[in-house]
Amino acid sequence: MAVAKAPRASRSDPEARRDQMIDVAMAAFADRGYPAVELKEIASEVGVTPNLIHHYFPGGKSELHLEAVKRSCAQLEEMFEASPDIPIENKMPANVARYVDEALVPTDRWKLYTRSLRSADDDLRACAVATRLAVMEGVTANHLGTTSPSPEVRAALFGVYGFLEDASDEWRIQAIGDRAKLENVIMSVLIAALATASSG
User: Fold this and answer.
1) 136 CB neighbour count, 10 Å cutoff
2) Tens digits of per-residue pLDDT, 175-186?
3) Which is the most buried residue in 49, 99, 126, 188, by most CB within 10 A?
4) 105-119 burial by CB neighbour count: b if 16+ within 10 A, else e?
5) pTM of the predicted model as reported, rounded to 2 decimal places
């Protein structure tokens, strides 16, 4: 699949050009995977030379890939609501719906995030793990009133999120049409894990 054409940045706006490189890279790496992407393709989509990509990203393809993963993870973190001013009965369904939106498409950022969790590259995996932990902190802030849960709760949620991410991907792969059931499964598993791990 061809990478969608990105609007070309003005020569006078290097930050916008850098942002476009990362945006195009997100789509390319998500669509074709790291080995199949060449910098010259990304350069062509942005309207620059490969040398200019090396100017912005001296580490070349691997550095650009890491920046694409970082942006993907940051965007996922920003989606989740942990404001104490919003009732939990409103926050949880909304947060789960956003999560399911990402998994069932799946979006470019979801692909990069979930692949990075399984990556042998320490930097990529660390970025994805940090995102999972940030989302977990939002869950414990919403349900337990703390972003520093006990080790038992932290360990349980970390494992539960792995299960929920895999379950959501499998839901999509198996073309199970009942989205509401998936959302209910996610909420039920999270609530049960929180209750069990924090009891006693």
Assistant:
1) 20
2) 998 999 999 999
3) 99
4) ebbbbbbbbbbbbeb
5) 0.88
Contact 29, 68 (CB under 8 A): yes
Alpha helices for the chain (secondary structure H):
14-32, 39-46, 50-56, 61-79, 88-104, 108-117, 122-144, 151-173, 179-198
DSSP-derived secondary structure for 104-158: HTT-HHHHHHHHHHT-S-HHHHHHHHHHHHHHHHHHHHHHHS-SS--HHHHHHHH
What residue segments make up the domains of the chain, in order of their start? 1-58, 82-198
The verdict on whether omega for the bond into residue 106 sits within 30 degrees of 0, i.e. cis, is: yes
To the nearest 10°, report the CA torsion of 179, 185, 191, 193.
Answer: -140
Over residues 25-48, the pLDDT tens digits come to: 999 999 999 999 999 999 999 999
| Among the listed residues 121, 80, 119, the one whose alpha carbon sits nearest the alpha carbon of residue 101 | 80
Superfamily of domain 1-58: Homeodomain-like (1.10.10.60)
- pLDDT above 90: percentage of residues in the chain: 81
